[in-house]
Design a protein that fits this description.
Layout: E1 4-6, E2 13-15, H1 16-36, H2 41-56, E3 58-66, E4 73-77, H3 83-86, E5 90-91, H4 97-104, E6 108-110, H5 122-127, E7 134-141, E8 144-154, H6 162-212, H7 219-251, E9 258-262, H8 263-279, E10 284-287, E11 295-299, H9 300-316, E12 323-333, E13 336-345, H10 352-355, H11 366-369, H12 378-388, E14 392-398, E15 402-410
Parallel strand pairs: 10-12
Antiparallel strand pairs: 1-2, 3-4, 3-8, 4-5, 6-7, 7-8, 9-11, 12-13, 13-15, 14-15
Helix pairs in contact: 1-2, 1-6, 2-6, 6-7, 7-12, 8-9, 9-12
Bound molecules: adenosine-5'-diphosphate.
């Protein structure tokens, strides 16, 4: 039975479904306000997912976003998937519901996924979950689709209806704007940190010029000041170019110049470049690479930048007369062939606590930061480059003994 009642706010006669709809839209206004004021990425995603479950009366929900640097579609938040596993799932664009929604920019309802060939079954199989039905909508900002929002398993054995599609699509618009805002906020945070980093060399340059203007300075003092100025200018150049590199990589504006090349040759080329710097401190570099060729497909210049960063770090943070060993070998990950490169040094090593921060912006270990030059951006840039080649980067280190940095790249 459907009764008609009067909406208190409008005076309009409403049926029960009409009242329910109004209540849902009132709720979505409340939720949108909460989303707009949440700037922390993870808390924001949690709120979006619980709002999607509540508004569509679903068992669970998930957010998938396009990775700006690789173009891959990945789960960003899915309460029913283990957090350790969720990060590693790349959803195929051409054989998944979310991929279809992102490509076509349209909503899709699947009433019975068991009959749907394009349903990406791997996740259900891995996590022991049974998806019965799905409602997926695109998340769009400025006419660009940034991902998909999915509601799974309508409660009470019911079907998703038009009302569910509309409400989830409305939530997805608000959610996409909130995600973009949180990203912009993070970038502005990065800008603030960057300006802060630039201030130190700029202040040193200013002090040097003031000193140079004094007429009573002896020749050696003048030389000292000029060499400080050279060092600080170089630091400014390195900071600004690293900063630009990272900003481009993080915004997805970096275009990879992809070609096929032999990684072994590139590794040898990079070692040649740093040999002089190593010899100046009596450090010996040994290569233990078999004669096997490791053909990879990628941006040769960018991979060179990563290798040079690992090698110069292995020199900078080594002890005098130390050693560096570079190794490359074949390995398998999820049955796919990879080449793994390991750069080991006999340096100071890195404590467990510092290892957790190593790939963060501007992070430098305090005990070595004063007597080595650096920006604290190199490893993060390396991580972004390797990830954009579908590879991995990590380290193993023991304090006082040395560190080994590993990278993997898929073989062509
Ligand atoms: P930078 O060398 O410019 O400071 P990186 O991002 O390359 O920046 O490295 C960040 C920090 O990680 C370094 O400042 C240093 O404290 C630490 N680090 C990197 N590589 C090594 C290494 N091989 N051994 C010990 N510490 C290292």
């Amino acid at each position: 039975m459907t009764s008609n009642r009067t909406s208190p706010s409008s005076g309009i006669q409403l049926s029960d479904p009409g009242r329910q709809l109004l209540a849902r839209y009132e709720r979505i206004i409340e939720i949108s306000q909460q989303l707009a004021s949440t700037l922390d990425h993870v808390s924001l995603l949690r709120r979006i997912v619980s709002a999607a479950m509540e508004l569509t009366d679903s068992e669970t929900a998930s957010i998938l976003l396009l990775d700006p640097s690789t173009g891959e579609l990945r789960f960003e938040m899915a309460p029913n998937i283990d957090s350790g596993y969720v990060d590693s799932i790349v959803v195929p664009m051409d054989s998944s519901i979310a991929g279809w929604v992102v490509t076509h920019g349209e909503a899709r309802v699947i009433h019975d996924v068991s009959k749907e060939p394009s349903f990406f079954r791997n996740v259900d199989e891995q996590i022991n979950f049974t998806t019965r039905n799905i409602l997926a909508v695109p998340m769009r900002t400025h006419n660009k689709v940034i991902g998909a929002l999915e509601a799974l398993n309508k409660r009470g054995g019911e079907r998703y209806d038009d009302g569910d599609v509309k409400i989830l699509a409305t939530l997805a618009v608000q959610a996409a704007i909130a995600i973009e805002n949180a990203r912009l906020f993070q970038q502005s945070d990065f800008m603030a940190e960057m300006v802060h980093e630039l201030r130190t060399p700029l202040m040193a340059l200013k002090t040097s010029t003031v000193l140079l203007l004094r007429s009573d300075l002896p020749r050696e003092k003048i030389n000292d000041i000029v060499s400080t100025m050279q060092g600080e200018t170089e630091r400014l150049i390195r900071l600004t170019s690293d900063f630009l590199d990272l900003a481009r990589l993080e915004s997805g504006r970096t275009r990879l110049e992809v070609s096929q090349f032999d990684l072994t040759i590139l590794v040898r080329e990079c070692i040649d470049i740093v040999t002089h710097q190593a010899e100046a401190r009596g450090i010996k570099i040994t290569i233990t690479i078999s004669d096997e060729q490791f053909e990879v497909e990628g941006d040769r210049g960018k991979i060179k930048q990563v290798l040079l960063n690992l090698l110069t770090n292995a020199i900078k943070y080594n002890r005098d007369h130390g050693e560096i060993v570079v190794n490359a070998y074949r390995s398998l990950r999820h049955d796919e062939p990879f080449v793994e490169i390991a750069v080991s040094d006999t340096g100071f090593g890195i404590s467990k606590e510092n290892q957790a921060h190593l790939f963060e912006k501007f992070f430098r270990v305090a005990s070595t930061a004063n007597h080595t030059t650096g920006t604290g951006l190199g490893l993060l840039i390396a991580k972004r480059i390797i990830e954009s080649h579908k590879g991995l980067i990590w380290l193993e280190s023991a304090e006082g003994q040395g560190s080994t940095f590993f990278i993997t790249l898929p073989l062509a």
